[in-house]
Amino acid sequence: MAASVDPLVVGRVIGDVLDMFIPTANMSVYFGPKHITNGCEIKPSTAVNPPKVNISGHSDELYTLVMTDPDAPSPSEPNMREWVHWIVVDIPGGTNPSRGKEILPYMEPRPPVGIHRYILVLFRQNSPVGLMVQQPPSRANFSTRMFAGHFDLGLPVATVYFNAQKEPASRRR
Amino acid sequence: MATSLVFLLLVTLTFSASTLISAKSNATIIESTCKTTNYYKFCVSALKSDPRSPTADTKGLAAIMVGVGMTNATSTATYLAGNLSATVNDAVLKKVLQDCSEKYTLAADSLRLTIQDLDNEAYDYASMHVLAAQDYPNVCRNMFRRVKGLAYPVEIRRREASLRRICGVVSGILDRLVE
């Protein structure tokens, strides 16, 4: 069990953002053709649009997806931890976020300084959440732990994270 | 009499020539700074129309642009709160307009923090604050979208696009400062 979350411990995802959990669901994340595996490097220019996310589970289950950056504005001084990029709730099991309710629209990674971790966290809901959830007042200083606690989401059932840093000027234009 | 006139003419010509030369060299800073953004023409015209730009460095130009954004955001917040929501009888629309006004006020606050960040040369903070300012108008638009049958007013859409463009320019200039 511990082996399957090791990259998350090593990457301090568990600790900085999440508590130790046992993965009980599968989630596959793709930016274009690139499959996201823990700690892989993604160019922000390839992440302008939301990733394709497929989750396991039964259609009568509902899931919440959160994408968050604990390294805002910079990993050495993350005073805006966390910066939340995307929140989708009420995603039916076995489907993808387009079938859920987008509480907070996707914002692409734009790391100004340093290498940031971008974490996608999947929770299994106990009940439909859609009408109860308001958009957070600000993307800064978000707490995935508190959000999960507030809506009784429990521990994550799946998580994956990638790294991104600012691309050199010549590439961005 | 004639010599003093000629002398006056020469002084005037020299003065305007030197002003032209220094104005031209700073026009180059404005142009090269704006080249790093995605809105070159808009960036150049906005900066050139500010009296402080001839003597501003890149950081100063960023601050000028942030000021333009603050004006936009504050005027939109006022427009929504004062003019629009006061004249509306529909309770749902009134609430949306008031919430939207709040979001544009938050955008202006974020931009004010950006100025402080620029003063402190904390460009990573500045980048995040500009991102926040750019995001608040989206929240307003989504509030309209959530209400069935409620149209997103053209005037607000125009102001949203304007603020996004201004923030885009600031982000572009900040990218250059961070490098």
TrEMBL record, chain B:
Residues 25-173 form the Pectinesterase inhibitor domain. The keyword Signal applies. Keywords: Disulfide bond, Glycoprotein, Signal. CDD domains: PMEI_like. InterPro entries: Pectinesterase_inhib_dom (IPR006501). Residues 1-16 form the signal peptide. SMART domains: PMEI. One of its GO terms (molecular function) is enzyme inhibitor activity. This is Invertase/pectin methylesterase inhibitor domain superfamily. It comes from Arabidopsis thaliana x Arabidopsis arenosa.
